[in-house]
Design a protein that fits this description.
CATH superfamily: Nucleoside diphosphate kinase-like domain
Shape: globular
Order of helices and strands: EHHEHHEHHEHH
Distance between the termini: 7 Å
Number of helices: 8
Bound molecules: uridine-5'-diphosphate, magnesium ion
CATH architecture: 2-Layer Sandwich
Length: 153
Amino acid sequence: MERTLLLIKPDGVQRGLAGRILGRFEDKGLKLAGLKIMRISADLAARHYAPHVDKPFYPGLVRYMTSAPVVAAVLEGPRVIDTMRKLMGATFGWKAEPGTIRGDFSNSTAYNLVHGSDSPESAEREIGLFFQPGELVEYERSLDSWLISEDDA
Ligand code: UDP
Ligand code: MG
């Protein structure tokens, strides 16, 4: 089953929104495979955001992501990468549609509460940066038979 990396960014943790944000993904039926709270080092922030190293917003982004703890999670489900990005909404909070996490809770450009991997390649790379293989848990949920049809598996 497909997996993706979720980060609840420092503003999400500081604003006390971590539980509600995780709940949005649980409500959608996505399964938690890994979860922790942690402080991101400058080195980890640089590796995670390496694709953006040449962008003008990169220095501020690294400062933001290392300024306070984040919640890191691995979520699992059919098409989870796409589903999670849709629930997050567009990058800028002021542009994101109401009903999405960013659209409902952020009115900012940089402080947009969540990160989600944008492709299977990014997901694999980013999960490897934040989690050891032994920290990810495989388990069955009895409700899965009502959340995942034969077409989804
Ligand atoms: N960001 C920013 N200014 C910009 C574009 C992005 O501060 O003009 C920040 C924002 O926090 C965003 C992150 O950099 O979430 C990574 O940007 P990306 O384009 O990958 O957006 P995402 O994948 O998070 O929607
Ligand atoms: Mg991105």
